Amino acid sequence: MPLTKRKRTTTIRAMAVAGLIAALMWTSVMYLLQQAENMQREAVERNLSSVTQAIVAHSNRTLQWIDHAALLIRQRYLLEGESLDLNELVNSRDFSEPLFVLLSIADSRGALISSSQPYTKGLDLSDREHIKEHFTRKNDFLFPGRPVIGRVSGKPSIQFTRKILNTNGTLAGIVVVSVDPYYFTATYQSLNLGEGGRVELFRSDGLALVRHQDHQDAVGVDISGTDLFKHAQTTDGGIFHLTDEKGKETLWAYSELEGKELHVAVAMDLDEQMLPITHLRVRILIMAVLLSMTIFGLAWAVVKYIFVIEKNRLQAIEANQKKSGFLSNVSHELRTPLNGILGYTELLLLNEKDKERGEFLRVIYDSGAHLLSLVDSLLALSRIERGLVPLQLRREALHSLLSGVVQIHMRSAHTKGVSLSLHVARNVPAYIFCDRVKLTQILHNLIRNAVKFTDRGSIIVSVECRNDELVIAVQDTGRGIERECQEHLFDTFFQIKHGDAQGDEGFGLGLPIVKQLTDLMEGRVRVESYLGKGTTFTLHLPLRAAPAPAEEPTAQKAA
């Protein structure tokens, strides 16, 4: 794949991964924010419900106390008649509450006949709603009248009235209990409803007796045309949402009071109550944006880093190919004169009679042979790195192959006083499919190294089958290898230094060739070594068992 296309593909993949991570992050953030918003809404609704229940309880108690006062006055009037002193009654314990503004009694025509404050006897109240209501309605009930400015007290008040009936059921008079409307709003002000909070105490016809809104109080407000009143007519109570023409959403709680003549509605500004979540949402969204930018920034940094690595890798490959080509050319150029030197040296050795000159020629021949082996190693490494060494699998007699390799090194081992032996397990097949040349070269390099670095003791080549693998171990009792050197053993041109020596003979190519040939054969090689105790190289190759030559036709027929 061209480098430009590879860069484009890498960039797209990195950004796709970054986009996926960012999408997952945003999905989680939005889900958690929605959960937090739902929890806050539920908390606001619970708070509103609790506040409404408290207001309803307070209103019911207040109405019960007002009704109790009206019933008590009616009872006393029926007993005492017009001689009843309401001023004395107000000063009694039962009417010491600041709720009451005025207590009064009107006759059956609506004329004032008694009051807890100085009054004009016979003052006509028949035009007042709270008086007229009892002229037309026959049932006996506590009627909440329209808030007015009292003609006797001169103060704003809500008029609660009850009938006084004769024994024959005719109207004898009307008890009027005037209460302070701000007694209700004082309680509302003590509640934490927020800046947009609102409380309505209204009648069934849509007249709000008292209203508390935006820290201000109002009385006698007509709300019959509002969405609140329209919604209240369709339900017995509960929590609902209303949105005004500006799009502002308000959360309402509604409930009927005892007797169902009066109703309570409590509101909270939903935007205000959700403000903590709104602030939290803004902070989290800012953090999410910054995190998204960080994710894509890191993705781009990774892409650039990959580009640098890829560029360095390609440069290294190019340099390695040039090196391999150079080594190959140099090796080819060296082989021709070396072969000439070895050939003519061998001819001179055949004809040389002088012992001393023969030894000189032998030194020349051995040195040339060693140099030729190094050149061959360079050529082999160069061919492997350039991919010019294909794997050629053929059926081979494994026991014969192993014995042949070990036998070649037997003389050099015995010369040093080191025993060299081969142990083949019974589960090893007689024939396998392998690349004979490459397997032989691997074994030669491993055994040659073992002989080179073992001065006494033994070298054991053991072969067994384990987990569908052919396992070959070359174990020696030589010098051992330091731990820090073991990880570099298969690096090209790496040499181990022993003592004050600068390094053992050779270019450090034997083990790198072993590693690369093993990789080519789809195997692996590992080393285990301890200083002063020895080293074990273990070769793991795929086990490809093959039938014996005589069994091949039968095997083919069965197949």
TrEMBL record:
EC number(s) on file: 2.7.13.3
Domain (Histidine kinase) ranges: 329-545
Residue stretches spanning the membrane: 12-33, 284-307
EC category name: transferase
Pfam families documented for this protein: dCache_1_like, HATPase_c, HisKA
Catalytic activity: ATP + protein L-histidine = ADP + protein N-phospho-L-histidine
Functional description taken from the UniProt entry: Member of the two-component regulatory system BvgS/BvgA. Phosphorylates BvgA via a four-step phosphorelay in response to environmental signals.
Protein name: Virulence sensor protein BvgS
Organism name: Parapusillimonas granuli
